[in-house]
Amino acid sequence: RFNVCPYTGTISKWRRSTLMNNMGKKFEFEQIEGGHCRLGGNALTQEEDGICLMDNDCNSGLECVNDEVDIESCQSMCRRRRYAQRMVDACVAGCDITTCEVKGEL
Question: Computed over its alpha carbons, how large is the radius of gyration of the chain?
Fold first, then answer.
């Protein structure tokens, strides 16, 4: 989930603009070739324990990894529920996520 609006600051027509969201996190808005733009900054990345798909989804100093302990704990909780088997299977599958963690800690 990204949080860029509302923001403070002014968007420049010709170069990169650094803006701040209502949570005090900075993000950059930059015009690139072909009429496109590039967004970046901490307002668009995940903090520690945030769900991610790749390292670029995480704040600097963090990497996107499988936390096997958290995954097993989640799956164990799913298996103890009194759900129909298809719902248990869906719950277990939903536990297999990657999160942003401090580099080298897991």
Answer: 19
